[in-house]
Amino acid sequence: MDDDPDIRDILRDSLNSLGFRVLAASNGQECLDMVDKEGPELVLLDIEMPDKNGLEVLKEIRQRGSDVTVIMITAYGTIERAVQAMKNGAFDFITKPFELDHIAIVVEKALERERLKRGFERFAEEAGERYRLIGGKSPKMSEAIETARKAATSKSTVLLLGESGTGKEVFARAIHKWSERKDEPFIAINCVGLSKELLESELFGHEKGAFTGAHQLKKGKMELAHGGTVFLDEVGDISAELQTKLLRFLQEREFERVGATQPIRVDVRVIGATNRDLSSAIKEGRFREDLYYRLNVIPISLPPLRERKEDIPVLAQFFLRRFALETKKNFTGIIEEPEARLIAYDWPGNVRELANVIERAVVLGQGPNVTLHDLPPQIACAERESISDSLSYRHALHAARREVIIRALAYTQGNRAAAARILGMHKTHLLNLMKSLGIE
Question: In the 8-state DSSP scheme, what is residue 303?
């Protein structure tokens, strides 16, 4: 926007020659109308205008909710006003008289910022979709989410327990996102499949010449995650020697790189995860008991999918939408019979397996609905008896009773007499119910 027709023509021709589509406005109101109607990526605003000056136009653009990138054009005598404009949300300013090459550089820089911003917004939206996976209506999942949200407000170490495919990394990322560390790094390390030496180097880094092949200094993940969160997946599989070093790190929040003697101190939140029974590993001498207690400050058990079957229809629909968008295929739902078979199946691979099954159905199916023919044989042939059992009144009542008693025991920290009083029953009746419902 500029009231000088010569400057408008020069800018328009110059930017057109660089491949940009340019709209020119001669006054503030015309500029505002164009921003509303055209939604440009970038606005060049002259500060000195006869009706509404550039500062007033910038203010109104922001009041209308637009976050379009704005560059101010100013004469030398009004640089202070241009600086004020930047404080009010302008990206940069250009002084008159200007060089066209300089304008091209500033415009390219501003548009690159705009592209990066949009890319980050898309990433944030996609990340937000991932966190929806941890939702659900089942009491066990609701309890896990509530514990995770409370844990996120602290610096305490969290240990995620659950079978493979239950979403432990998604949960860890959610805890990081809900915490004050959300703008700092989140670094995931898979402790399986790496030798002791390689895993130690991944965690703590190494000095140049520390071992054969160490040609230069390497910072470890603990150091790179300073201020943020480190997720140790399958932490139950690390070697005995590395368990000792990890214990020291959890105690002191300091470590030495491999080949170094100078300790490095960092501020890192640790979230561990395992699908192993660490109590058994401790008894067998494969896992340090003191390390277990350091990791197990806030334990969160993630239920397998077979124990949260009421969540299967919601999760299946979520994956259906995702893969339909990715493949650009017209899938809108899952009809009753295949949905019942999905509920009947025991899902040894948990949520990860469900995602794979729905992706297969979308890729191989015709749509618009998932049918039995779109499911793999082991699911399509699930026994009807197991379907009726999982949805029966008896099954639902059993699950509800069990959940209520577990919650009462958790509230009283295992005091069965107090739990019985809360539930309004005799302690003997509670003990009998616990035994019949398989509650230890």
Answer: P
For residue 219, which of 201, 205, 233, 236 has the smallest C-alpha distance? 205
Distance CA 237, CA 287 (A): 9
* DSSP per residue, 7-63: HHHHHHHHHHHTT------SSHHHHHHHHHHH--SEEEEES--SSS-HHHHHHHHHH
Structure tokens at 222: 């603990």
The predicted model scores a pTM of 0.59
What does the pLDDT look like over 116-172, one tens digit per residue?
Answer: 666 555 544 444 555 555 666 788 888 898 999 999 999 999 999 999 999 899 999
Rounded to whole angstroms, what are the CA distances from 378 to 224, 320, 346, 374, 411?
A: 45, 20, 10, 12, 41
SS (H, E, C) 189-236: EECCCCCHHHHHHHHHEECCCCCCCCCCCEECHHHHCCCCEEEEECHH
Write phi, then psi, for 337 (nearest 5 degrees): -65, -50
Residue 136 and residue 171 in contact, taking contact as beta carbons nearer than 8 Å: no
Cis-peptide, bond into residue 303, ω within 30° of zero: no
Q: What is the β-pairing status of strands 218-219 and 205-206?
A: antiparallel
* Contact present, 270 and 160 (Cβ < 8 Å): no
Cβ-based neighbour number of residue 131 at 10 Å: 14
Rounded to whole angstroms, the Cα distance separating 24 from 4 reads 11
The residue type at 425: M
Tell me the per-residue pLDDT of 247-270, one tens digit each, with 9 for 90 and over: 999 999 999 888 888 889 999 999
Instruction: Judge whether 73 and 44 are in contact, CB under 8 Å.
Output: yes
Residue 269: C-alpha distances to residues 103, 189, 201, 300 (Å): 45, 13, 19, 16
